[in-house]
Specification:
about 190 residues; Maf protein; 6 helices; alpha+beta; eight-stranded mixed sheet; about 25% strand
Length: about 190
Amino acid sequence: MRLILASASPRRADLLREAGIEVDVQPANVDEDVRTGEAPEIYVHRVAEAKGRAISEQAPGRYVLAADTEVIVDRRILGKPASPEDAARMLRMLSGRSHQVMSAVCLMKDGEPVVPTEVETSVVEFAGLSPAEIAWYVSSGESIDKAGGYGIQGLASRFVTRIAGSYTNVVGLPIALVYRMCTKAGLLLS
């Protein structure tokens, strides 16, 4: 059974394929603006379902997997940096402290969730970063398209001192959760 992955993230597609889950990639274009007063859990849930619904309605009879992953500091959603300066600002916020990485995952068919959408949260602790380390990392270009301004699977791995929870969640998709949801839906993934 091939799923449609409603995402442009090459990291998500790679994680799924490495776990033996074949996908066809079809990015979703939905409004990802945070609503005033919206809690991070509600936000990721809403955006994941919007992505899933947008693609599912275009692919009748197909199972669509969608997710949204965000980095949260003090209940604040960081999003993706808009510029190198914004990436540096985010890294200063993460320096020497813990933050949450939160992903909502939904599995849809014909525009409706097949099983309840779930949210996975991991806690990541960063070492204290010097201004030179932040400047070096930002200049690598790795931070630009990543929530919170870093990618744990790349150069930023040197800054991570501890993780509590799913590593693949921090990369961008909690694979064990995806597998559980597919199993609940009765999908045979081979």
